[in-house]
Design goal:
binds erythose-4-phosphate; 14% strand
Amino acid sequence: MRPTDLKTRIFLDGGDPDETKEALKLIGFVDGQTTNPSLIAKNPVARRRMERGEKFTRSEILSFYRDVVGELTSLIPEGSISVEVYADSKTAADEMIKQAEEMFSWIPNAHIKLPTTHEGLKAAEQAIKSGIRVNMTLCFTQEQAAAVYIATKGARKGDVYVSPFIGRLDDRGENGMDLISNIIEMYKKGDGHVELLTASVRNLDHHLYALKLGSDIVTSPFKIIREWFEKGNFVPGNDYIYDKKNLKPIAFKDLDMTRSWQDFDISHELTDKGLAKFASDWNSLIKE
Ligand code: E4P
């Protein structure tokens, strides 16, 4: 059951509804779920089909994705389900918006994942005006988080998430959890309309430290939810010290969130790489 001192919402990161059922059985609650093209490609039904050599047509894969998120919604109707648009380096904001409108109509509790790129932010500005909830993904810097805040100003709290990918920063020797504490610090000056969703969680310590720091949401893969459950799904207290190992610190920057978002350099190598990988995982499912 939900620990009484738990403030952070716990999302499951995955594309397999069977894991959602398992997580619900284990901890008794799941506050939402995040999916992405790579996670949908790992869905067991999709994998079995690919192993039989039966790729999807474009419309089949969309209807498969729709069915998966439909099932997730029936399992966690009160939660939020993140559904990601297809985007590569050439996808324009208008094309993202078309997909966002379609995906947002699939289920009543969707947040649409848009990349934290120039086109993704343009799409987010427009999406928010049309009442589409967004989850800005592939965020690796404080500048990107500031740009998300500014581009979505005026949105209701709960309608905008920003997803910093901490594990991928750790993978290249930087302390991803520093980015979480830096964004929390920066957002203290704001109006609270953007919720921070700690993503790309690789181990139980990431999960626990996100709770300790007070991230609004953490999305963790099933195996980490299970590990958390096995350790008594506790919220770490003041005695908890995050072991940052020999990861390089990421310094806090005093950014001015009253500027226009276009003033910030929002480019990041990992955003570009991540976009390309999501696109190629998605395309690998589709018949030529
Ligand atoms: C969730 O929203 C993200 O897409 C996911 O956490 C990315 O995780 P990864 O870096 O392990 O692929």
